[in-house]
Specification:
The chain has 95 residues and is mainly alpha-helical. It has 4 helices and no strands. Helix 2 runs antiparallel to helix 3.
Length: 95
């Protein structure tokens, strides 16, 4: 159970950009190849099968947060003290 909790499930912004670009390229290439192959053999079902294979490949490569999508993590600021009286006094000053 501890092994499952230690699996990273995030991507950084650069990784999200790479994943989106890669999925678009894969699906577009498989669509073009499928369309050409389906036209050559006059079987639209082959076009759909090739496009589905491209979608499956793109899903496996881009939905899973592989380490190449986590190379540039953001450095977040440390959390502030959660003093609610400070928030209330700031609201009163604005009025």
């Amino acid at each position: 159970m501890e092994f499952i909790k230690n699996i990273p499930l995030h991507m950084d912004f650069e990784g999200q950009h790479k994943a989106e670009r890669m999925s678009r390229i894969i699906i577009t290439l498989f669509g073009i190849v499928g369309l050409i192959w389906g036209y050559i053999i006059q079987q639209f079902s082959q076009t759909v099968y090739i496009l589905a294979a491209g979608f499956l490949l793109a899903s496996i490569l881009t939905i899973v947060p592989w380490p190449l999508y986590r190379r540039k993590p953001l450095n977040w600021q440390p959390a502030r003290n959660g003093d609610s009286s400070n928030v209330k006094s700031n609201i009163r000053k604005k009025k």
